[in-house]
Amino acid sequence: MVLTDREASLIKSSWKIMEERRIENPLIFYDAFFETAPDAKKYFPRDDFSKLGRKFNYTMDFIVSNCHQLDEIKDSIEDLGRIHVKLKIENEFYEKFNESLLVLVDKILGTQNSKEIETSWSKALTHIAGIMQNAPEKEENKFQQLLRKLFG
Ligand code: HEM
């Protein structure tokens, strides 16, 4: 088990408060992210933040609903990691991604926030980022690479 029961339940209860602000969440998050990591803007050439916002909430729902069993969603997280490798996302941005999520948690929870809540979110995000960054290449990709190497 990656998170303790207590950590998972703190994530779930804090997201319950946060998810009531579904429109603001991605705006606050990406504002914080681009402020702390202005270089990351280059990865988002399109201005369509409404789609990005919906993806953000969907991903958060997925992570939160599985946060008590992160091992069970390892394959999906690895898939996500491979998508980010394709996008050529550098590892240094993951820490800033994590920090920006804590800014969001703090802004929405306000006085209801606590060090323990922040540590729980941070632990989940660090774990997910680690799996994404170390996702193995898919076997088909390796085979494809071999064919490309042999036959161009
Ligand atoms: C734990 C960390 C992260 C999670 C859970 C996450 C999650 C996601 C998800 C679910 C998607 C949508 C994938 C799709 O539509 O196929 C996505 C796309 C993307 N992510 Fe991340 N991400 C993370 C970290 C990062 C970081 C550090 C960057 C750095 C800039 C980044 C940049 C992007 C970009 C540029 C896209 C494509 C945007 C688009 O759909 O137009 N992500 N991410």
Q: Briefly, what is this?
A:
The protein is mainly alpha-helical. The chain has helices spanning 5-18, 24-36, 49-65, 74-86, 92-109, 115-133, 139-151.
Keywords:
152 residues, 7 helices, mainly alpha, Globin-like, binds protoporphyrin IX containing FE
Any chance you could write out the topology, listing elements then pairs?
Elements: H1 5-18, H2 24-36, H3 49-65, H4 74-86, H5 92-109, H6 115-133, H7 139-151
The protein binds protoporphyrin IX containing FE.
Please tell me about this protein's structure:
The protein is built from seven helices and no strands. Helix 1 (5-18) crosses helix 6 and helix 5 packs antiparallel against helix 6 (115-133). It has one domain (5-151): Orthogonal Bundle (Globin-like). With 152 residues, the protein is an all-alpha fold. Protoporphyrin IX containing FE (HEM) binds at residues 40, 43-44, 52, 55, 59, 80, 83-84, 87, 89, 93-94, 97, 125, 128-129, 132. Residues 40, 43-44, 52, 55, 59, 80, 83-84, 87, 89, 93-94, 97, 125, 128-129, 132 line the site of protoporphyrin IX containing FE.
CATH level-4 homologous superfamily: Globins
Question: How large is the share of residues in beta strands?
Answer: under 5%
The CATH class is identified as: Mainly Alpha
Fraction of residues in helix: over 70%
Low-confidence stretches: none
Measured between the Cα atoms of the first and last residue, the distance is 44 Å
Number of helices: 7
Main sheet: strands, sense, barrel: none
Beta-strand segment tally: 0
What's the pLDDT, averaged over the residues? 94
* C-alpha-based Rg, rounded: 17 Å
Bound ions, cofactors and other small molecules, one mention each = protoporphyrin IX containing FE
Class inferred from helices and paired strands = mainly alpha
Instruction: Provide the succession of SSEs.
Output: HHHHHHH
